[in-house]
Amino acid sequence: MSSDISKKEAKKPSLGIALIPILALVVVLYFFVVRFEQDVHVPLIIGSIIAAGVAFIFLGTKWEDLEKGILATINMGMQAIIILMIIGALIGVWIKAGVVPTLIYYGLQMISPGIFLAVSMVICSIVSIATGSSWTTAGTIGVALIGIAYGLGIPAGMAAGAVISGAYFGDKMSPLSDTTNLAPAMAGATLFDHIRHMVYTTGISYVIAFAIFVVIGLRFGGSSIDTQNIQDIMTALSDNFKITPLLIVPPLLVILMVVLKVPAIPGLIGGVALGVVFAILVQGVSFEEVMDVAQNGVTIEFDNPTPAQEVVAELLSSGGLQSMMWTVSLIICALTFGGILEATGMLGVMAESLLKLVKGTGSLVLVTVLSCVFINIVSADQYLAIVIPGRMFKGAYAERHLAPKNLSRTLEDAGTLTSPLIPWNTCGAFMQTALGVPVSQYLPWALLNLINPLVSIALAYLGLWQTPMTEEEIAAYEASKAALAA
């Protein structure tokens, strides 16, 4: 395309101009997502068109500059995109190998009336770590747990809060999760560094939430529990997969690779290879079938299924490289919008306005958290709540010589975890529909989601676990800054 679309010299946008694309996107998202119940991809493209139009008309930006900004931003997300495709294959292969069914099977054996709420959180954590999906966890095992809660006389809001706390712990900490890959991609951190760094804020929050659920659950300790529903699910799992402790080996080895700081891509490919071996040796699946599952995922069907079989079919009919294409395309659309805002300086202007409130690391993390919550509210999408603040504040963290994993952790502490607390957000809408519990009822009991952002802010103000850049990273950053200034 010709660079003569605009002859004007590009100029710095004012805050008012910078907010036009954001406000326009909010309006477009409202009509598409809330009114028409459509996906967010097309609204993001429309938002990108509006942002480009604003850049042409008010700033005199050339198309070639916008295109460079878009491609540069998408390039920053390419590692996450590659990892997501590998993860799609990994999920499919691990289901076929019986790894995921085994984790769910043993998790369900932990049910106990006296600590039902705390155990529900743990079970959902296990399932969500195994699948990398809070939605899948809540929509399957979560639904079953809500049914048990009704039988025990436990308020549905409490049970839903425990389910969501566990589901989002796994979603946040699992290398199989899309948001767990997106956040470090936006901040410039590596996947496994990001996960290890989240242990501090998320671990503390998890212990606090678990303890509160234990205390609350003691009041229901005298209740009896009908375990038939859980037993039916376990039977459906064991009827369709060989369940053995041996199948816990693949996830343990992947965790070991995280500890040993093996790079994400080769580590996850190793996980796929292990899944292939176990699928053939333990489940007796042919190599050709495993390869098809890696590409297209698993589909489980029953003739005249029982309710328990329906849960198992819905939970385990997933995976495959192709299953990640919806998320990959969404990330590209979001990064296109973010790339235009960054290339035109609009993100920078908004960040400058917010950074005037920043006096130290604590206030920087506070502003990042509030920005993530704000984007979750106005855009109704957790991906944008990671992408936009991630691009806005990356430079501010680098300027303070804070390692990128500090930013990526904060993006997840706030962007990922607050998304189900907003009724019109896609995550909040899904959770209240799937669990049959309004957001207003479960919000006070989604303890991990409420506590984690506060712990993140508190640790930042206390100066705890805020990792600085290495000397080499500082030198590289200062060199790049000098090169840009020149």
What can you tell me about this protein's structure?
The chain is built from 24 helices and no strands. With 486 residues, the protein is mainly α. The chain has a domain at 79-325. Helix 4 runs parallel beside helix 13 (264-281) and helix 19 (382-399) runs antiparallel to helix 20. The longest helix has 27 residues, at 191-217.
Main attributes of the structure:
disordered N terminus; 74% helix; 24 helices; mainly alpha; 486 residues
Instruction: Give the percentage of residues in beta strands.
Output: under 5%
Q: SS-based structural class?
A: mainly alpha
Count of helical regions? 24
Instruction: Describe the largest sheet.
Output: none
**Total E-strand runs:** 0
The string of secondary-structure elements, in order, is HHHHHHHHHHHHHHHHHHHHHHHH
The gyration radius over C-alpha positions equals 23 Å
User: Outline, from the CA principal axes?
Assistant: globular
The chain-level mean pLDDT equals: 86
Oligomerization state? single chain
Low-confidence stretches are 1-7
Cα end-to-end separation: 28 Å
Helical content band: over 70%
